Amino acid sequence: MLTxxxxxxxxFSGLWIYEKYTETSYEQEEVLSxxxxxxxxxxxxxxxxxxxxxxxxRLEMGKAAYFFAVSPTLDVSFIYSFEAADSADLDVEAExxxxxxxxxxxxxxxxxxxxxxxxxxxxxxxxMENGDIFIYNFTLDMPETKLMAKKVQYQLNYSSxxxxxxxxxxxxxxxxxxxxxxxxxxxxMPINIVSTYYQVPAELGSREDTYKNIRxxxxxxxxxxxxxxxxxFLNAILVxxxxxxxxxxxxxxxxxxxxxxxxxxxxxxxxxSKGKIPENLNSLLQVxxxxxxxxxxxxxxxxxxxxxxxxxxxYFIIHNGTLYIFFEDPSEEEY
Length: 335
Prior knowledge:
Layout: H1 2-22, E1 25-45, E2 58-59, E3 66-67, E4 73-84, E5 88-104, E6 111-119, E7 124-129, E8 133-141, H2 142-155, E9 162-176, E10 179-193, E11 197-199, E12 206-218, H3 222-265, E13 272-274, E14 285-288, H4 292-301, E15 306-309, E16 314-319, E17 322-327
Helix pairs in contact: 1-3
């Protein structure tokens, strides 16, 4: 009974494996949709007589400091590019501002006490496709920038440190990878202005990746069928274990029956000989005995031996024209 149950479970789990392995399944996958790159490059031209550099010298990025008395103006280029996974067709507007502010604290606890923006030229609008690069050039008068920010600080009677950033705001609208998009991205260049010089970081590039979720077909994997596969193999093992156990039980029963018959015959073995019953019995008087024990008793009384015909399973005695016989099933084992 258990073997049948386990076989049914094997069939069920096999069908389950087939269904799981052949069914179409999908999953959400995050893929890169487009990337925006924005960076600043700059240089300062030496326009004032000084003991360090000849006039006309151009001071490139990475200097520790740029002195007002040597190079009061800063030439800046903002470089913006756009890369989509497939295609892009955008209207892009860029506007650059000088942002002066009073900040205290740092990180998430930083607070802006005040902020003032000053425009740097007019906004510029361009049309961009996938992989295009947009460059916006402008010049900053650093003493004037310092003066505008300090004026606000003075009017507010704010004595803490002053923060100045050049911020370019990029507004874009159109289609990316065939989908309508609209967004805004800010790119900042911090400037540290002190009494006689200003400082600008050497590394100013930044990027922003935008992802989207797509529905993709998932190939069948072992993880999808591991439970029904485990169930299938478990029941296969159980069936394989139960079949020989059943056979052993059958063998054990037959063996026990044989032993029992041998046990019953054991006391009579010394009175029995093997032989063959005569073919012509018509001349003999036939007496049927009900048991082997009774036949052995008769043999003892008349001083004869019991003859066993193994082919027919018959036990018999012939004495004085009389056949004494006991019939046994010929399939039974001999003694």
